[in-house]
Specification:
Layout: E1 3-8, H1 13-28, E2 32-37, E3 44-45, E4 71-76, H2 78-88, E5 95-99, E6 109-110, H3 114-123, E7 127-131, E8 134-140, E9 143-150, E10 153-157, E11 165-171, E12 177-181, E13 183-187, H4 195-198, E14 210-216, E15 226-229, E16 234-238, E17 244-248, E18 252-256, E19 260-266, E20 271-275, H5 281-289
Length: 305
């Protein structure tokens, strides 16, 4: 019996209802349907003074979601899509993302297109787009204490009552550099349209095998964004006396103390998006962010009523 997965944001009634209806429809078509929420992919935050809970990324895979699954459908916004890939990327399951949120930058379709889209996917009339993810690992005294899959970005930043942060960053075999800033963003091409864009970073087309490092409010005219191959591991240590906060994709994180070391490497688990048409990134930029819209000149004269 073929198998399909359904993942949904359980705090949104419209997503819950859509997941129930799709599950019933797929079962009538003869599919085994595995249903879960996106909650397991939201790792939460560690607390000061409490041990960091190490959750291996492979342990987040929901029951029934295995390599035999044909595809999965997720209902939610971009946050739910990110959470879903943290759960299923280790199994290599392709994902059709249905927007029930707001921006929906990572989603493929809206609810009113669902039935036709699922029929196309079942018939094989679709495309797969792979996007790189990175593995984030925190080492405390050379012991792995925290890890997470990251699709958008890693952010290491100061707490509200601390001052300027000092970081030592080493990319691959290259000499380490010192950066003084409020924080650091290390972003994938997918994340280049998220936080790093707001911090002044460039937009990078998905499929380019790079990462980018963007200092947040750097205390130097010489500290600018850096783009480098994602085949290079990145190590970050803190030279601050106070703990810093590390956040992955905006919904998971932990504290980083001076003796800790953060390591980023390209994940062996890419995110596999189901696209109904060949991916066209510039169209998404235009529709979602208004990039490249034609300029309309102001009239030379205005007639008053």
């Amino acid at each position: 019996m073929p198998k399909v997965g359904v993942i949904y944001n359980d705090i949104k009634p419209v997503a819950t209802t859509a997941a129930q209806k799709l599950s019933a429809r797929l079962e009538k078509l003869g599919y085994e349907v595995c249903v879960t929420t996106g909650a397991a992919g939201i790792l939460g935050y560690s607390q000061p003074g409490k041990p960091v809970c190490h959750t291996p990324v492979e342990s987040l895979v929901p029951p029934g979601f295995d390599k035999d699954m044909d595809f999965a459908v997720v209902f939610g916004g971009d946050g739910t899509v990110l959470s879903a890939f943290r759960q299923i990327a280790p199994m290599g399951i392709p994902l059709l993302a249905v927007n029930t949120g707001h921006m929906g930058f990572l989603t493929e379709i809206y609810l009113n297109q669902l039935n036709d889209a699922v029929d196309q996917v079942i018939a094989g009339n679709c495309h797969l787009e792979e996007r790189a993810m990175v593995m984030v690992k925190l080492y405390s005294e050379d012991q792995l204490s925290w890890e997470a899959l990251c699709m958008n970005e890693l952010v290491i930043q100061r707490q509200p009552l601390t001052s300027m942060c000092h970081f030592e960053v080493q990319v691959g075999r290259h000499a380490p550099v010192d950066i003084a800033a409020d924080g650091l963003i290390i972003s994938t091409p997918t994340g280049s349209t998220a936080y790093s864009l707001s911090a002044g970073g460039p937009v990078i087309v998905p499929g380019v095998s790079v990462l980018q490092l963007i200092p947040i409010c750097p205390h130097s005219l010489a500290s600018r964004g850096l783009v480098f191959p994602d085949s290079e591991p990145v190590a970050v240590t803190s030279a601050n006396s106070e703990p810093l906060v590390m956040v992955v994709d905006g919904n998971a994180g932990c504290y980083v103390v001076p003796s800790d070391r953060v390591l980023l490497v390209r994940s062996p688990y890419p995110a596999k998006f189901i696209r109904l048409k060949p991916p066209e990134f510039f169209r998404v930029l235009r529709e979602k962010l208004g990039w490249g819209l034609p300029h309309i000149a102001k009239p030379t004269s205005v007639e008053l009523p």
